[in-house]
């Protein structure tokens, strides 16, 4: 059985896939209750997809307006 967070992740994936290939989509949950904390992350294969998402707003998902914020992500490599 899929949890609420699982269903939300699937909704995010389906919605944002229209802008390009999504590598990862995660809804952040409360570790105790398993319920959504009200935010998540979408990672696109092509960074230019983010520009399309920002230009196409506002976004409504499952009847709620979704705020899309650009986060810079840096890949770190352990050299130890």
Short description:
This protein is an alpha+beta fold. The chain is built from 2 helices and 4 strands. Helices cover 28% and strands 29% of the residues.
Describe this structure in words.
The chain is built from two helices and four strands. With 80 residues, it is an alpha+beta fold. It has a single domain, classed as 2-Layer Sandwich (Alpha-Beta Plaits), CATH 3.30.70.330. The strands form two sheets. A two-stranded antiparallel sheet has the order 1-2. It has a two-stranded antiparallel ribbon with strand order 3-4. A hairpin with a 2-residue loop joins strand 3 and strand 4. It is globular, with a radius of gyration of 14 Å. The model has no long low-confidence stretch (mean pLDDT 80).
List keywords for this structure.
alpha+beta; globular; single chain; Alpha-Beta Plaits; 28% helix; two-stranded antiparallel sheet; 80 residues
